[in-house]
User: Fold Polysaccharide pyruvyl transferase family protein from Bacteroides uniformis.
Amino acid sequence: MKIYFPIHLDGGNRGCEAIAKGTAVILGKPREDLVGLCSNLELDKRLGTNKFVSLWQSPLWLKVCSKFYYKLKSFFMKDESELTQLYFECHYNMFLSKMESEDILFSTGGDMLCYGNNEVIYTNEKVRARGLKSVLWGCSIGKKDLTPEKIETLKHFSLIYARESLTATMLKQELNLKNIVTFPDPAFVLEPEKVELPDCFDIGEVVGVNLSNYVLGGFDFHSSLGKDVIALIDAIINLSNRHILLIPHVMWNNQDDRIVSRIIYDKYKNTRRVHLLDSDSLNYCQLRYVISKCFIFIGARTHAMISAYSTCVPSVALGYSIKSVGIATDLSMPVDTVVDSKQYHPGALEKAYNYVEENVTEIRRELEMIIPEYKKSAYELREIINRL
Assistant:
């Protein structure tokens, strides 16, 4: 039995790297039995993902033929949904055709179903038509995200593994689904990998900050949250001796954390109190090591927050979907530590930071009590998958 990951994508989003590596650790299978469709093979090899998962990339001839086929068909097709299906067909069919009767599809990506109808549906329905098993692996989805197409495909998964209890409860109550289990995100089981720390850690306490265009509403700081980020950095610089380390976590086109981080760094670099981590040179577990050394962490990306939680760093989550609240709730983190970036109220970020700062010892102690057993529970998935 092999497990196929058609939506692995690549480690340009360090969360994708984390899911692949964490899944391999949990299942304890040889890399030959875990096969991921990779869109950037060179990068994933540099990050070491290929040591955990066998990576498959479409051959160049297939990419060229698929692109030509797509362009030709799109000239005659005007329906957007048909074009999307055509793209999925070109991109996924050869990979999925490698699956044999005992193989299982793992639909990863975490919050993929929080967005529009997408490849989660296509790949699941494709393997179902062949009578193969599929698992929605480590998912988050809110009630407002449901569509008729998503509801239908959710019923077709052999197993749904929710990574937080809010998603599991919603799926049980709204859709009456029975095949649901709840365990931590697979990335929780990964250990930090020691690297040389930036010089700011030699000076004093460091506040780690991960920002994204998702929570800011664009690649600028014009939103209410963006303005409050600037105000908070000013306050940390003026009212404390702490340094700020900007930690990009996603480096894909159109959602590159380095863009907004660079804006902040350029604005404050003359203070010598704001620093920018070269995240591109580090893999997920190395980034986790850096985050683990922070006094407080403020994070937009879920898997950056998971690194903070797993290493017991008191944190503020800049949430934009059910996953942020769900994971924080399961870890018994106070609601005051999660900021809703989509329905943001001015002053909420400073309030959350002040709460964490005032309760830093208690929050760290709470995480130290919860995290060991919480992480350990993820390994129960191994037996569940073996019985599937």
The mean pLDDT is 95. The chain has 16 helices and 13 strands.
